[in-house]
C-alpha cells in the first residue's frame, strides 16, 4: 500500500503554533512486595499436591502479558514445584498470541525471558486442544477447548496477574479464571470464548465455562499477582482450584485501586510513543486511554480523550500491532513495524476487529501532530490539553502542555519546561 509523503499532503492542513510543555514526574504513593520470588515460592508451598507421586508432571501455565518480572516469577513457581519432588513443564496459556503457532508462542515467552535454558525445564507449546464440553451461555452453545499439553500433565498450576480487562468491566476480569478458560483454550478455545462473550457477556461466559475446564484438568490452583501504579508486584496469593471466582473480585478491586492512570482525565490529544502486547493485551491499556471499542461494551467514562496519536510498536511485541486501531492517527514508521499475520490472528480470535484497523497514517511526527491540532477544532495553544507518554504501562515520566499544569494532582511534580521540536519530521523535546 502506498501512503502519501509530506509533499503530497502538506498543503491540506494549516500549520498550527505549538504549546510549551512541562516534563512531569508522577509518583502516587504505592506499596510493593520486597522479594516477589520469595513470596511466590512461599505461596506455592500452600498448594495441595496430595496424591501425586514423586516425579509427577506439573504444567506451569504462563501467559504473554507484560507482568513485572514474569521470568523471575515463573522460575520461582518452577523451583517451588521441583522442590516438592515433581517435574515441572511450562505450557503457554496465551490463546492465539504469537501468531497462533507453537514457534510464535515460544518466541513470545523468550521475549519475556522464559526459556528452557533459563528455567531448566521443557516448554510444551503445542497448540493442540480437545473439545471437552459444550456449555450453554444464555441462548448460545459454547464449545469449551483445553490444551492437550495441560490435560496430559498430572497437575496444573496457572500464573497470572489479576487486573482490569481491556474489553469490559465486571466482577471477574483478567486473572486466573480467564487464563484457565481462554489462555489454556489456545486459538480454538479463545475464538469460541470471545465469540460467545461478545454476545452473552464476558463474565457469564467465564463463569459457565470454568467448571467444565476444572472438571477436565488436574488443576491444583493458581498464583495470582496484583501490581501497583509502577507495574511492580504489590500482592502474591496462591488460590486453590475451585476458589478462583470467589477470590478474584477482591483482588480485582485492589488492582483497580493500585493501577496506573493518567494524572488528568480531560485530554484533547494523547500521544503514545509505543504500543504492544507486552504492554497490554490491547496494545494500549484501554482503562488508561478510555477506549474499549468492542461490541456490547460501552467505553469507560474516564478519561475523556478526544484524539490519540500512536507513534510506533515496542520491540518486544514482534510486530503484533493489535490495538493500533484504538488510535486516531499513526505514522508510516509504525505501519512498517506491523506483522499483519500476528495482528490479524489476535484480532480474529478475540472478535475485536476494531483494534486491528489502520488509523490515518501520517508520513511523520510533524504532520501527525499538525493534523491532530487542526482536527481538534478551535485549536488554541494557550488552552490545548496535550499529554505525551512512552507507553500506557509507564506513566511515571510524561510531558504535558502548559495549560494542564494547574490541573495536575499533588503526586505530579513539574521537573522542567521543554519545547517540542522536529528534525526531518521526527519529534523530540528540548529543554528550554
UniProtKB/TrEMBL annotation:
Residues 73-227 form the DUF362 domain. This is DUF362 domain-containing protein. It comes from Haloarcula vallismortis ATCC 29715.
